[in-house]
Amino acid sequence: MRKGLRLAGVACGAAFMVAVGASPALAHDGTVQANLSPVAGNGVNGSGTAMVEVTGQTITVTMAAQGLLADNPHAAHIHFGAEARHECPVISDDTDGDGNLDTTEGGPAYGPVVVSLTKTGDTSAASTLAVDRYDTAKGGKIAYQRGSIKVSSAVAQGITEGKSVVVIHGVDHNHDGKYNGSKKSDLDPSLPTEATDPALCGALHVGPQGGMATGDGGAAGGMNDGLIVLGGAGVLGAAVAAGFARSRRQSDAA
Ligand SMILES: [Cu+2]
């Protein structure tokens, strides 16, 4: 009985989640995406896109960003907390009132680290500050893709329900081209706060609903999985490709 229920869920899951963003009790497959924007108060002039595809407890992450401090490591994570607001922090989260948002101050908005977007090796929260395994943003840009990342079923469900947030860390408050300054990181006092403060952030939401909805209830009722899933991937893929193209244009213009 339980197995039958689960299989039915898998069959309809991806299309259903993309179409209506439902919140079922069982973990479902799905794809979510985010536009990355500068974190309030941290003076970053950058942007980016991210997409996460969830299949069971395995995810593939595709991310592009520009406008970061060049040639310095940028820790990047998926954050998720059941009790978090599932969004990027705002300046009113600056609880110490110094005008910048550090990683801890963003916690109520995006929750703890659940996936470390390292280039190699471990991807768990244990690698949150494994600075030697993160992208160093050559020219201020990151183009990242990694698959076969294992997550817990709770995290997989949080992601497919649109409740997780991508954060790229590492800012240059004093614009001198490196991580320094007297204020220490809230995560690791051996690092300056510039090395870990959040730079770009985006809430990973269920993909463009306008493009999916047929208006006749067909998506939810018909379960024409192949067609809908294929259509969904096309739209999402195009969105990410557009993000890459946008990044290139912006940097060309700069
Ligand atoms: Cu983070």
Description:
The chain is α+β, with helices and mostly antiparallel strands and about 250 residues long. The protein contains seven helices and eight strands. An eight-stranded antiparallel sheet has the order 5-4-7-8-1-2-3-6. The model is unreliable at about 1-25 and about 210-254 (pLDDT under 50). Copper (II) ion binds near residues 77, 79, 113 and 167.
Topology:
Layout: H1 2-20, E1 30-38, E2 47-55, E3 58-66, E4 76-79, H2 107-110, E5 113-116, E6 142-150, H3 153-160, E7 164-169, H4 193-196, E8 198-206, H5 209-212, H6 218-222, H7 225-253
Antiparallel strand pairs: 1-2, 1-8, 2-3, 3-6, 4-5, 4-7, 7-8
What percent strand?
15-25%
Mean pLDDT: 80
State the secondary-structure class.
alpha+beta
Q: Which percent bin holds the helix content?
A: 25-40%
Unreliably modeled segments: 1-25, 209-254
Order of helices and strands: HEEEEHEEHEHEHHH
Rg of Cα set: 19 Å
Largest sheet: 8 strands, antiparallel
Number of helix segments?
A: 7
Strand order of the largest sheet: 5-4-7-8-1-2-3-6
List all distinct small molecules, including ions and cofactors, that are bound in this structure: copper (II) ion
- Terminal CA distance reads 59 Å
Shape: globular
Number of strands: 8
